[in-house]
Amino acid sequence: RIVNEEWDLQNKDSFDGIGIINLNGPITKNGGMSSFGTKGLSSSMLQMSKDSRIKGFVVKTDSGGGASAAVQIMVDAINEVKQTVPVYALVEKGGMAGSAAYGIISACTGIYSEDGMNIVGSVGTMIQFSATPHGNVDTDGEKTICLYATKSTAKNKAFEEAINNDNYKLLINELLDPVNENFISTVVSNRPLLKGTNFDDGHTVFSKDAVGTFIDGIASFDEVVSMILSDTPKLESNSNNNNSN
Q1: How far apart are the first and last CA of the chain?
Q2: pLDDT at residue 10 in the model
Q3: CA–CA separation, 2 vs 225, rounded Å?
Q4: Which residues of the chain, if any, have pLDDT below 70?
């Protein structure tokens, strides 16, 4: 039986259940009006895993990534759950698993894709922001002024240098690089198959070309469920991808 939420377990029925975790859209920590963050998803997964009828989980994935701070929360939950039941990731047909989303599913027991043309990878870190340089005057004649306390010499320094002086070294060296190295370390620790490859340069690849590195094979939802129930995952080859176009 497919179990989509904890409510589905509020009964005394006897069945073998497969828990579904939907990892889609922008990855966030707390979620929003119409999406769950990793705090909510991890909590739901941990609660569902306590029911002995749950035989494993499928993390259905379609996301290009999101907040790096949200990754470890879900990774920790997957690592805890897979000590008792298998947790498989399945990149949905027409979808992708990029950046933070891939970082999360790298912790899974196995990673499969429904279609060979799905995109996976993008293990890298970037930041985007906008602000008004000090002293700028807008069309209404209002001037932008930014002041810091005397001792606050390092507060927002990297951002100030980027906005006012086009100096991006501090932002890259003090923020992006450390976050990126931690992200890369997490991914390769979860998925040793990637060690020795150029996975960490941020490139993406089609699923059909990622078997044996980013993913374990091409498979349907039913096939992944069968793997969970038998707990004997098999490495799929590209030749099994008959529906990629």
Answers
A1: 31
A2: 87
A3: 10
A4: 32-35, 232-245
**How far is 207 from 115, CA to CA, in rounded Å?**
7
CA gap 153, 170 in Å, rounded: 14
What is the C-alpha separation between 44 and 219, in angstroms, rounded?
A: 25
54-62 vs 2-3, strand pairing mode: unpaired
Q: List helix spans (H) across 50-142.
A: 71-81, 100-105
SS3 content of the chain, % helix, strand, coil (to 5): 35, 20, 45
- Using CA atoms, how far residue 28 sits from 47, 148, 197, 199, in Å, is 20, 31, 28, 23
pLDDT at 168: 93
| pLDDT score for 31 | 72
Query: What pLDDT, on the 0 to 100 scale, is given for residue 33?
Result: 54
How many residues can be counted in the chain? 245
